[in-house]
Write a structure and sequence with these properties.
The chain has eleven helices and no strands. By secondary structure, the protein is mainly alpha-helical.
């Protein structure tokens, strides 16, 4: 009994460490997304962009979500979620670095698109990882904690990055957002581990994507559609 209790206690502590790693991923996503708005005036002035091009720098971050979110979910169901998370963070870092060093609009836009691909993949897999580690009354608490990451990241970006860019230039503030993503990568690679499968039903062999769609049932797709429309309205 003591050994079992000790194992449960260790697992209980481990889940909060894993949540911290997942939290860092969403925080990196939020700061990466919101790193452009505080700097748009400086970017437009330095690189002689139009305001329409400035707006497109935000759009190119969100646009990949229309394409990559469903494939990202499929990959997360079939392959190592830790590897997908690490690859996603590497894309965020690479895109941010490209944005920070860009000298013209095409390079800036490509950097934002690459960051968007990585970030929106994280948005898909992070809640899935939380659900694997937390159940029952702890799940609501964990999801509530996770959902503070985006507004905190937004507040930090919109308030602090503008101060930094006014003193050190807009590229410095973008490099700081890149550093946040790098820190999240280190935390996730070091601290995240798959949830133990003790007491869980073993996963069945994959029977294909369209089989999964048929098996999900109409209620699941109604909830997914409602959530999609809610997020569209919110944005």
């Amino acid at each position: 009994m003591k050994e079992g209790g000790s194992a449960l206690g260790t697992e209980g502590k481990r889940r909060w460490v894993v949540l911290a790693a997942i939290y860092a991923c969403i925080l990196a996503y939020a700061i990466s997304l919101q790193s452009a708005p505080p700097n748009l005036g400086l970017i437009i002035g330095e690189l002689d962009l139009t305001h329409a091009q400035g707006g497109l720098l935000m759009s190119f971050f969100a646009l990949p979500g229309i394409i990559v979110c469903i494939p990202a979910g499929i990959l997360a169901d079939r392959f190592s979620q830790k590897k997908i998370g690490i690859i996603s963070l590497i894309l965020v870092i690479a895109g941010s670095a490209m944005f920070a060093t860009g000298a013209n609009f095409p390079v800036l836009a490509l950097g934002r698109a690459i960051s968007g691909i990585g970030s929106l993949t994280l948005v898909v897999i992070c809640p899935q990882l939380v659900v694997q580690w937390f159940t029952g009354h702890r799940l609501g608490t964990a999801m509530g904690i996770l959902n503070t990451a985006f507004p905190i990241g937004t507040v930090l970006s919109l308030n602090l990055l503008s101060i930094i860019s006014s003193s050190l230039g807009w590229r410095a503030s973008i490099w700081i957002s890149t550093g946040v993503s790098l820190s999240a990568l280190v935390m996730f690679a070091w601290l995240y581990a798959p949830a133990p499968r003790v007491g869980r039903q073993p996963s069945l062999p994959s029977e294909g994507f369209f089989h999964g769609i048929r098996q999900a049932g109409a209620p699941i797709w109604l909830v997914a559609t409602a959530w999609m429309l809610y997020n569209a309205a919110l944005i």
